[in-house]
Write a structure and sequence with these properties.
By secondary structure, this protein is an all-alpha fold. Helix content is about 55%, strand content about 0%. It is globular. The model has no long low-confidence stretch (mean pLDDT about 80).
């Protein structure tokens, strides 16, 4: 799961006994990584914008 996205779902899955990881993009390749994720699922852009505006 991407950091900051679907945190409530991640907590619920942990309570149900499922393991998950949080991916955090950092370093010099964060932008290409992020663009690849957007190409895979464009709806992620809405999640990012929503989280940025929710601060």
């Amino acid at each position: 799961m991407l950091y900051g996205i679907q945190h409530a779902l991640q907590l619920r899955l942990a309570r149900d006994g499922w393991r998950s990881i949080t991916l955090i993009a950092y370093g010099t390749y964060w932008f290409p990584w992020f663009m690849r994720r957007l190409a895979e699922r464009p709806a992620n852009a809405l999640f990012v914008i929503r989280n940025l505006l929710a601060f």
